[in-house]
Amino acid sequence: MSGQTPHGGHHPGPPRFLSCSDCIVDPIFVDTEHGFDRDNLAPTISGQPNKDPENYDSDAFSWRVITRPPQSTATIEHALSPYDHRERYDHGLHNTAEFNPDEPGTYTIELKAPDTTHELTIHVFDSPGKHQKADDIADNASPPRISLDGYYDAEIESFVIESHPALAPNSEARDSDLIVEFLPHDASELDAEDINITEAKAQIPIRALSSPTNVYAAPFDGQCVGVRDQICLDPETKTVSLPNRPPDWLDNAVIYEIFTRSFAGTPGETTFETLSKRVSYLNSLGIDVVWLTPIVPAWSPTVDRAPGGPHGYSATNYFDIADDLGTLAEFETFVEECHDHDIRVCFDLVINHCGWPHTFFQDTVAKLDTDSDSDDISTFPDITSWNTNSKYFDWFDRQQRGNKHDAAPAQTSFFDVRYQPNLNFGNVALREHILASIEFWARRVDGFRCDIAWGVPHSFWVEVRERVRAQNSEFFLLDEAIPRKARFAASEFDCHFDTSGFMRSVHAIAQGKRSPTDLLADIAARRNDGFPQHTHLLNATENHDEARLTYQAMLAQRPAAEKIQRAAMAAAVMLPGIPMIYYGQERLITKHGQRREAAYPDDPTQSDDIESDPYKRAFINWSTLPTEHFAFYQRLIALYHDSPVFGVKSKLTRVAHRSETPTDVLVFARNAGMNEPKRVIIINFAEESRHVDLRAVVDTTDQFTGNDISVDTTRSRLHHYLDRMSRHSHDVMYVLFMYFNRVNCGKITYWVSLDSRA
């Protein structure tokens, strides 16, 4: 079987690369106490997934270690939990497994499945910190990166794979410490011994291949393992492809998120018919991707004043459209309208948990305590006993004990929000059900935004990517992982949230608590976190889970809050990353929109997130358009699309400059290479104008407005100093900038774009 045909059997996925401090574990909870990551060894689904499959027998899949390094005693485990007193319920199926290596070297895991016997290779790098916990090592080190590329060399009749390894910018390792390991997909016919590795390059003779074959690689710097990358070799066409790359169209896309049930501007009026009528509006703004918050049937839109509003993140059916929004045919019409305007549609995929009223979950409930009813709409009756004979009983994650509401074995819930029970991705039938829904929607949309990505094992996301890319090679996947984790770039996601970095910083800047140059540190941190150069991160200033930036600036009593919002959006567009607009930002929704009412306005003992910001999910203001503000967004997006200097291949560089108010102004440059002039970007977060000294060679014609923004002043000693220093080495110029940055606490601001003659 070729590594390029993943649906032909129950194979356990691509090879794994670990350090001695790593393990493959799926904890009972994913939270601040247990960590924000989960994984397991799992068989893939063979063929077309069934919408409502029967459970697999407990002996349908069996795992064992068949080869291991000398001195190793590691074995397959079915639950490395408990982490604490909340022990996971033993459902007895054990179709999936967990693994904790104890020595460096190569392990071979055997999976006996209904179709045949499969193997999985796990390579474990030696590490001086092999007895340390992975989280402790991560605090002190940054992983290296690779980006595979390759070609066929007819002279040697072999494929050549180059990995382009690089240490993290803040790594304490040396280049000589850096190694790259290559492994084939175990489902292919390629033998690992046929891969000839020389330093960071591999050669594979074409005679060793009979069909398209996936090869994987990962870097190691002596302490940290970097993100795995993937390349596919086709011996028939003698070409290579890179399945782990984002689609090209995403490189300069602008994403627009809609809180679906607020977009009509009037409570209860949003339908796909009303959404279709607004597609031309999105097109006039310059939007490339529209992301709709959940549209499937869910609990929260069915009740008045649900906590957080009618968000829909509590699915009760994964194969239909919510009644209040319309029909599946009307949704498909909306998608067609978007496609007619070259706008792609992103579906909000929420599969780490579902809603309490979901038919499958209700089938697992045997008896409710009807006396436990409450006036609180989000408090469901206590569960006094379970229907353990339900087909779906093991489809939900459970703990061995009970809790204050439910009998043992009580379900776990998303961050203990009881109306959102967690799904059990240790159950292969549940995985098949979810994969069937993913294939259902992947035929109708262009991408998925995946809610709480670390609430689902990595093994499942790898299978999801294979499925959706088999249907549409340009399909894209956006993860919500807070905090961000580079590991989701390993054959999983094309674009990643950066809420804990970029968004948190820009909000603190809007409140006057931090300096704008912190955003440059956020961009640099992405490389230190190990994100490969080829993946994307989202530059979002707001979303449905965060307070509106303008509202926060207003609460902080910052003058001209709307100017601060424009400055923040300019930074999101001009800095490296994928810019995102949250609906209504471009229309000043915090000034003109209709607020949402909180779920508990008269109960001081309870609160929901709308109380902290009544505009975060407000109704958009179609009757009022602040024309100057809206035009700014249009011009900004147009400049982003029209100028190649803001593309993904454009470098972010430092700029020699001085400002008397560095806490208001951000200055940086983007450089796309010799054929394009460098652009110097100045962003001013202050209400008033600010003066910035730049080198005299900089053209003072603002590319955004067309105005000359120079100030008539005598050439200062600073200009001569900047010019003289710039003629010297890059290191001196860097030291000069760091000197200004350190002494003046320089930070980001409102923006103008300058064209450099240099």
Largest sheet: 8 strands, parallel, barrel
Helical/strand content category: alpha/beta
Distance between the termini: 55 Å
Strand order of the largest sheet: 15-16-17-20-21-22-23-24
Contiguous runs where pLDDT drops below 50 for at least 5 residues: 1-5, 134-138, 715-758
The coarse silhouette is globular
Percentage of helical residues? 10-25%
How many β-strand runs?
31
Computed CA radius of gyration, to the nearest angstrom: 27 Å
The fraction of residues in strands falls at 15-25%
Tally of helical runs: 16
Mean pLDDT: 88
Textual characterization of the structure:
The structure is a single chain. With 758 residues, the chain is of the alpha/beta class. 21% of the residues lie in helices and 20% in strands. The strands form eight sheets. An eight-stranded parallel β-barrel has the order 15-16-17-20-21-22-23-24, surrounded by four helices. A five-stranded antiparallel beta sheet has the order 25-27-28-31-30, with helices on one face. A hairpin with a 4-residue loop joins strand 7 and strand 8.
